[in-house]
């Protein structure tokens, strides 16, 4: 009996789980065996991805329920089954074999010198680094940190050594289910002043900019010693970048994904999920040479385009710029003559300096000396400080001697960059700068005078207010009384600071006492009336009914939210009115009503050609992107639909109705609610069934909007063999017949089918079932604005025909409400 027990015990020790952190020279690791780092943070062994039977050897987080692989050994040569083996070769290399009797290794540490030490081991550290070393002397021979795959862990290095030529860089996976070497690489450029560049194949895609002494110039979000400690080294031995964490309990990783994004994640233990802490590229100006050679990108520009030419340059092909094609870049102005006696420099503030791969670097001179050096050299076209944020002040000199690539402006970051121009150009820029300062002074004086005048008028207004109240009467307004809520609202200082309060009598007069002739329409919230203020301004009055489901909190939420937002694709609020139990919002009047008035009506739909529809799609996308990313607040709308998109007289879309919107913190991406509100057909599945909402919930709604705009049909009122419009489109897409869904009211000669199909493709990407598969809005805006990009294949959308998900799904989309959807109880489920 003892012998049997010993045999079983020996077997257990040799197989399922090896509890130590090392593999000795005499030990093998079979498929199913795992070694753990000393603190059990990381694990090493065989693994598979998804339903694939292919087996890979790698390192992953051991205590995280969501499989997160950080390094793969045999990424391009997987084992076909579970018969793989890991052990040491006779030369001392750690190898992966396809079977126990395999002779040819699928992967090897490939140390060139023979390692004869009998105490050689492979040890997994708590940093996630697999190291080959002598267990007695501690001498190292090889480590996985020198050969990263797609993930950059704390204390790992990216860069190269000058002596042995070791180059550490990241390479993306081919796809989420295939860790093979993809076509995105992230590495330090060896030329000029060092910088990290993300490549698509051999083409630069995004770059960090040069090192400023504290951070990368093109990464304004980089913190100084808050969560991460960043370190850059450039000397005679190596050029490398590394980072650490100030709190050892923080789990973080940076990775390059197959779509060409660099993402930093942190683990939220409470929610048991990875949170995207930072990601690039995220806007047009981030992409390498978005504005072409000698072009400059400014996303905050008040001009028509975000791209302009650098001082002394002009568009090479002006007509292309009006078509928003900046690829031709800029050229020197014809009259410009450089290297004259009166040459000077125009300072560009808060800039991401141009690509430094071709710069000349001198770390031993000051910025003043750098200017003189540039003036003496006729080939020098610009200069900047090398380390403008070093602890002792700006040091070093960078000079450019050819075309300048990939510059942009930041709102609160960047550095000064000096561009060489001739005397005439310098005079013009100085004159513009002086006039700009004069304009600022005049504006300030005007504002002070206006404030003083306003105070006088306000005093007069308050003085006469009581008299007007007693002398002016209107027909009775049918309202009930709730003085408590009205009083609380008027005392809310946060509201009163944001926008003015209108009196009920003023609004009643403007709308002819809420006459039916002035009624523009009605929704679940109540009627909307057209009105005219005493000064002649036309307004739209949203009068909330008692049965709207929107109480005082939702009303205050909408007021606070929309009063803080300013974007051409968001409706502009002028004020509000709260008297007695009346709650009203006063908006700018938009003559073309809402989007659903056009796309869902036969006659009006014919007025929307493809150019107008594309303009509306792009405008809505830019508005949502502003809410998610570019506004002062991170906002999730939660009720995007055609009736909540208004159109002005130029058919520019304006997103409206923020009563159900939620404000998130800067790094918060999602939330939960027990009160699910929204519109059937537009709600994402995770929100409708589980109360989980995120920016991807709005992405889903936007995808539905795209498909409705293209087809002219409602998603939740579609009656074909598929349960929904989305299901119908998906079926035709898979048959290669997606052109059949294009609205027949559009003349085929007025649009390119490829452009329409691209929008169908983007719409299907947005309505994928899993929120993580959907693109974010910055990616959507980029895809809409670029034709020459490869879009990923969409996965099966949610709730389409032929999916065995239960009959409740179709009922949910078609508006058949109940207390439960797919056995998930929804508290306060409200369809509108």
TrEMBL record:
One of its GO terms (biological process) is recognition of pollen. GO terms for molecular function: ATP binding; carbohydrate binding; protein serine kinase activity; protein serine/threonine kinase activity. It comes from the Eukaryota. Residues 20-145 form the Bulb-type lectin domain. Residues 514-799 form the Protein kinase domain. Coiled coil: none annotated. PANTHER family: G-TYPE LECTIN S-RECEPTOR-LIKE SERINE_THREONINE-PROTEIN KINASE RKS1, RECEPTOR-LIKE SERINE/THREONINE-PROTEIN KINASE SD1-8. Its EC number is 2.7.11.1. PROSITE patterns: BULB_LECTIN (PS50927), EGF_3 (PS50026), PAN (PS50948), PROTEIN_KINASE_DOM (PS50011), PROTEIN_KINASE_ST (PS00108). This is Receptor-like serine/threonine-protein kinase. The lineage of its organism: Eukaryota, Viridiplantae, Streptophyta, Embryophyta, Tracheophyta. Residues 1-19 form the signal peptide. Residues 339-422 form the Apple domain. GO terms for cellular component: plasma membrane. It catalyses: L-seryl-[protein] + ATP = O-phospho-L-seryl-[protein] + ADP + H(+); L-threonyl-[protein] + ATP = O-phospho-L-threonyl-[protein] + ADP + H(+). Keywords: ATP-binding, Cell membrane, Disulfide bond, EGF-like domain, Glycoprotein, Kinase, Lectin, Membrane, Nucleotide-binding, Receptor, Serine/threonine-protein kinase, Signal, Transferase, Transmembrane, Transmembrane helix.
